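User: Teach me something about this protein's shape.
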Amino acid sequence: MPFFAPGWPAAVVSVLAASALGQGTNFPPDTLGLENGLIEIDTPNLSARIVRDAQVLASLRVAGESFDFLPFDYLDRRNRDGQYHWGDITYRYREEGSTAWIDGDSAKKRQPVESLSPGDALAASGLGPTLPSSPLNITREWLEVDGDLGLRFTIVNTGDATLELGSLGFPAEFNSIFTHREPLEMQKSCSLSDPYIGLDAGQIRVTPVNPVRGSRAALVVTPLGGTSTPLEAYRNLVEPSFQDTGYGSQTFEGLYEWQVLSRAWAEKEWAAAEQGPWNNPSSRALESGEALQFGVRFTVATGGVRGFDDAVRKTGTPTALGIPGYLLARDLPGQLFINASSAISSFSSEPAGALSVAENNNGGCTVTPSSAESTWGRVRLTVKYADGKVQTIHDFITKPTSEALADMGRFLFNDAWFTDESDPFNRTPSVMTYDYEAGAIVEQDSRAWVAGLSDEGGTGAYVAAAMKQVLQPDAEEVAKLDEFVNKVVWGQIQLEDYSLEH
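Assistant: First, the predicted structure itself:
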């Protein structure tokens, strides 16, 4: 609790208290329109609320439960221009023959949207008032989809010229805000999300931070049936940062958006990237008078994290499971198990020939990397289905296992081998964290666990070095490891009574 001197004016105390809590007094105004209330749009499986003026999603809970996947308790801190919510939309377009992209963003300068007759929808609105003037007419609907919640956008080209949509994104907001929360509150209130950027099989899996041993219900977001809404890219969203939430900080790293189209970003902001996007960037032509629909579906995984695959398949979205994973050595084929409602029509890899796929007798496929020395790094496996869906699976190919292990040993016991006898923290000699970009061992860092020899950040290097000797021992490396154990682990990290040095 902050200390305030007796007799200070109440107004001063109020301002200082707000500042101590990270809640200043000069924040931009509420443009969501919270003073006009919320609208409940429940479905049999989900209890949801949207803001009446903006009609963006404010709260999303499993029916009958109290846990909220969205930061509803922080809504009054996320009600300003430039702060994104489910139901917002961003896009870029240009007229046919033009090279300049024109941006649209429903959160940039909010105005109350136009409420429309919902028809069969739970709620519907025209987004014209909160978007810049353009030939695009965009409506948004919240739907019930077989007991789940659906979000659908209809985009109509009202102009005379053909337009190219080069970017289309749906901001994805979940309660990943740890700022100003005690640990127990964070475990009780917050959630973690993980995307699979797999085109028509794309999805976002969301689970409470504390899933109660996997039994707590989870959430999955998939493409909405009846639309073509691939998860082509997952773009980090830029928001203004305020003290009361700390957007872009260690306690609120930020939000992303589900990108259906990404060519405009690939041509501009991403053009200088060393490696390209996970999927080939695309755009869509929209002729005069033509309408396109896009959307996503929110589905409960009733079995918690163990129920994700069942929940995804329930929506008609394909699933894929790679064994042992998606990091493959050139000398170790992997297994791929695909579950889809439609037959597979073809496999292909990029670079061409980097992977070969053959069906086997256990219901899966054997994925074999090319033995060519040039096969290394990111590889995209594309699966096409008879119903027109396209799924991408992203692998990383390494050298053969024996070569990769030998390389790791040489690196850890040479480049990452720390021998500074003047080190004030008695870390000599040891295998330490290495900064590849700087080309140097990390001796100092504001995150102590990275430069120290404890926690996952500090132990990863020397645990890997020890495991390497189990599989592929090298006499010189074993001698160095022995020196590290006897001089640093015992007496510096681990005391004789098995307690830890602080």
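Now, about its shape. The CA atoms of residues 494 and 500 lie 5 Å apart. The mean pLDDT is 92. If you'd like, I can walk through any region in more detail.
User: That's plenty for now, thanks!
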